Amino acid sequence: MAGICEGRVAIVTGAGRGIGREHALMLASEGAAVVVNDLGAQPDGTGADPGPANEVVAEIEAMGGRAVVNGADVTDMKISLAQNQEADARIVLTNRVSVIEGTVLAGDRPTAAEVIVFTADASRWTFPSRFVRTASADEKGRFRITGLPPSEGYLAVAADYLEDGEHFDPEFLERMRGAATPFSLEDRDTRALELKVLER
Predict the structure, then answer these.
(1) 89 falls within a domain
(2) What is the pLDDT of residues 33-46, one digit of tens each?
(3) What is the pTM (predicted TM-score) of this model?
(4) Residue 59 belongs to a domain
């Protein structure tokens, strides 16, 4: 399979389905050896199924190409490179943004506070993580957070203060879990929350 990518290795994330699959097949048709990276997660980001990635590898091999499956989660985990090894990164921007907004109350009165939104999945309580965000509610109690990925298991809590970097401390998040408000978030979803301030 000679082509413009002959002798190259292409790593395609999300290659089990959709446009990622089409990129993987196109690169293979141009001679690239393809690493098919896909968790096989559901649209809400949960679960893992190697089936779609295996199907893409089988399709590439059937047309005479070379491919392997890689199920690593590259969205929130660091990728290690050997010394002096180079890698190209492709950044995809999207306007499909989720929005969480709402009000923080002290009793029945709006108040300024620090809002922490975090996933219920403790394995994602790392730095950095797309699944942990903070925002400062203003004196009218209003806050807004954008860009969280979809998930069925988010928690939100408002605290009277937050120390620098504390929202990435697993012990702190575990303490906040019991006082937090649970909610789910779909792709491009807008969620309105009313939170009671927690005095620490």
Answers:
(1) no
(2) 998 988 877 765 56
(3) 0.61
(4) yes
